[in-house]
Specification:
The structure holds two protein chains of two kinds. Chain A contains ten helices and ten strands. In chain A, the strands form two sheets. Chain A has a six-stranded mixed sheet with strand order 6-7-8-3-9-10, sandwiched between helices. Chain A has a four-stranded antiparallel sheet with strand order 2-1-4-5, with helices on one face. By secondary structure, chain A is an alpha/beta fold. Chain A has a single domain, classed as P-loop containing nucleotide triphosphate hydrolases (Rossmann fold, 3-Layer(aba) Sandwich). Chain B has a domain of about 190 residues. Chain B has twelve helices and two strands. In chain B, a hairpin with a 2-residue loop joins strand 1 and strand 2. The longest helix of chain B is centred in the first third of the chain and has 27 residues. The chains are: A alpha/beta, B mainly alpha. At the A-B interface, helix 2, helix 3, strand 6, helix 4 and helix 7 of A face helix 6 and helix 7 of B.
Chain lengths: ~250, ~290
């Protein structure tokens, strides 16, 4: 589904991603874990194509020089040159860090904007799925998205990304700032998205613990490279992982 | 009563002049300084369609609006797109093009007060015993229709929702498959057509002169700065604030102080409250 080969990203002279290689098969849920500034978000931006826009805008402004090397293959084809909206059209959709809802629009409008690429029938059918997935959104339909709580916003953000009819959904720090019980509500959606929509999911998260039960395979990223990878069980059994990322699980 | 009615009409006229500018800036952060020139251009194109080509007036209006939209589209495609993100260049390039259009028209022979568009009717209606000519009622009607139209367009149509999405968070919109270049082009074309719409309803009240182009640009800037650049609600409220201020100045002072009111409004706003009455809702952004 997705293959990232030896991805290098520089912000000026700072190395953000260092020969990062990652693979995700169709139908899998893959986790990417790492501390802040390990390169998770840069990876997500590079894969979704947003990094190209960031690099272009920085160049125009005369700001930071951002350079990118390596290959990104999506469904077997290189997509590294495609703009973000073109990748979204192919079904590669990012649900970004900090959610980035359209704050002045209502919940239902946010979801409808998500369905920009979808047909009328798809919009209707996906909307039904999203409201079933997150029943809380039902009563918030007409509320302004900017005034929702963090958990509610995250639900809208995931719903909005689903409306774009993804085949590969990238979730960047979906649990950031959420209370444990809400984290659980959000993560519970992931297996349903996979089984009922046939969507492959990559979850980037700082803490592995709330996410690990839901993944098939995971990578651990440090200083811009993957330092460890394995199936869920392999990571659970690895004493280093337990110490560093699953603290307190004994 | 005069003040209420004529102040209201003046406000709606201002809103018509400013809305296209506000729309373009709100969606694509492009200050379209050719706005006033497109306004005048549409007036002359409509005039030429009626008087040179002999088209019936309604057809001439539709044709002129199409020309305005197309001019905006070309302006975006060939100039603004390439310099997007460099604010200074955006201002200079669009202003230069505006100058070229206005002075080009002057050179072409469109000068003096001899060009005028026909009014819809010469009749006069009485509102609370105040005489108001039909053309001014049309200005109010078109202004109201514009607000309703834009409101419905940005709420119920896909392209309109995409405009609002890009206006609020360009990158988040890109992630959902919205092409920001195409949306920007649509916004500039739509904004130019709105400048044209203002021209074809307001010009029949007087004659078409080049200087109106500069005036409209300054009026549009004043309304947008006072209302908060990019805020559509702010644009509407500022139109009314400044429209009444202008009318009061005309009624109790001298007509040529109108421009002073506008320029003063820009300066005072920038000093006291640079983000305008309804600058982008910063308070919402940092909520987690």
């Amino acid at each position: 589904m997705l293959e990232v080969r030896e991805l290098l990203v520089f912000y000026e002279n700072m190395l953000a991603l260092n020969n990062l290689t990652l693979r995700c098969a169709e139908g899998q849920v893959v986790g990417v874990f790492g501390a802040n500034s390990a390169g998770k978000s840069t990876l997500m931006y590079a894969v979704s194509g947003i990094l190209l826009d960031i690099a272009y805008k920085e160049k125009v402004r005369g700001g930071e020089r951002i350079t990118q090397f390596g290959e990104i293959l999506y469904e077997g084809e290189p997509v590294g040159h495609l703009k973000a909206f073109q990748r979204a059209r192919r079904g590669l959709v990012l649900c970004p860090e900090r959610r980035r809802l359209f704050p002045e629009c209502t919940v239902i409008e946010n979801l409808k904007i998500g369905g920009y690429l979808a047909t009328r029938a798809q919009v209707r059918e996906t909307l039904e799925f999203v409201l079933e997935l997150f029943p809380r959104l039902q009563e918030l339909r007409r509320r302004q998205a900017g005034f929702l709580s963090g958990g509610e916003q995250q639900m809208v953000a995931i719903g909005r990304a689903l409306m774009a009819q993804p085949r590969l959904l990238l979730l960047d720090e979906p649990l950031l700032g959420l209370a444990p019980s809400i984290q659980h509500d959000v993560m519970q959606a992931v297996p349903k998205i996979r089984s009922e929509r046939g969507v492959t999911v990559i979850v980037a998260e700082q803490y592995a613990r709330p996410v690990l039960p839901y993944v098939d395979y995971a990578y651990i990223v440090e200083n811009g490279s993957t330092v460890l990878e394995g199936t869920r069980q392999e990571l659970l059994d690895n004493p280093d992982v337990r110490a560093a990322y699953l603290g307190g699980m004994g | 009563m005069d003040i209420v009615i004529y102040g209201f009409i003046q406000s709606v006229a201002l809103l018509l002049m400013a809305f296209g500018f506000s729309l373009v800036y709100g969606v694509s952060r492009l200050p379209n300084f050719a706005h006033g020139a497109l306004y005048v251009l549409t007036g002359f194109v409509a005039w030429a369609f009626v008087n040179r080509a002999g088209w019936p007036y309604p057809l001439a209006v539709v044709g002129a609006l199409a020309v305005a939209g197309l001019a905006g589209l070309l302006l975006y495609q060939f100039v603004l797109k390439r310099i997007r993100g460099m604010e200074m260049s955006e201002v200079i390039a669009s202003y230069a093009i505006g100058l070229a259009i206005l002075e080009g028209l002057r050179w072409w022979g469109f000068r003096g007060g001899t060009h005028a568009l026909p009014t819809v009717s010469d009749g006069v209606a009485f509102l609370f015993d105040v005489p108001v000519d039909h053309q001014r009622l049309l200005v109010v009607g078109v202004g109201a229709a514009l607000l309703v139209g834009i409101w419905a367009y940005t709420r119920f149509s896909k392209a309109g929702l995409a405009l609002r999405a890009i206006a609020q968070d360009e990158r988040a919109a890109m992630m959902l498959g919205i092409d920001s270049d195409r949306t920007g082009m649509l916004a500039v074309a739509l904004g130019s057509a709105l400048a044209g719409l203002a021209a074809v309803v307001i010009f029949p009240l007087g004659s078409i002169v080049i200087e109106e182009g500069y005036k409209v640009l300054i009026y549009a800037l004043a309304v947008c700065v006072v209302g908060g650049l990019g805020s559509w609600v702010g644009t509407v409220l500022a139109s009314f604030l400044l429209g009444f201020a202008q009318y009061v100045t005309v009624a109790y002072g001298k007509p040529h102080y109108q421009m002073v009111v506008m320029l003063l409004a820009i300066v005072v706003t920038l000093v006291v409250r640079p983000s305008g009455l309804f600058g982008r809702q910063k308070s919402l952004e940092e909520r987690v």
